[in-house]
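idk why but the lab printer keeps eating my pages so im just putting this in chat instead. protein + zinc ion:
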Amino acid sequence: MTIERDTPPIRSLYQQLILDHCKHPRNKGALEDADAHAHLNNPTCGDEIWLMLKLDGDRISAVKFVGEGCSISQSSASMMTQLLIGRTRAEAEELARRFTSLMHGDQDAARDRTLGELRAFSDVSKFPVRVKCALLGWNALEEALKQT
Ligand code: ZN
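predcted complex ->
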């Protein structure tokens, strides 16, 4: 018996991460007494996201989403919610800018650790149709923050 010592290539780790969030979305469900919410859809792919936020002063105390659609749209929203809890509004807006840069092919953003697991989407920037999927949750975040 041989022991497999090779680590899988980073690309397949990224794919696994995206699939994991798709199968087991984090922070999915309705948020009671949300301070802000937004509903966006992406007709070209059939994706939908409802995002709900609770704020404690300037800080995001809770985020949840409900949605359906492709694995990219749903897993991006799932990872986003994990990253947003406890952040200030300005930090959340900065993360949205960084992730949008990543989706537009910014190589610095691809190395930005503040994006955490969301760097798994760096290859998506090569597929303009899928970029809309990956950004759907983030666009909903920007809409929701405008209401607060
Ligand atoms: Zn999609």
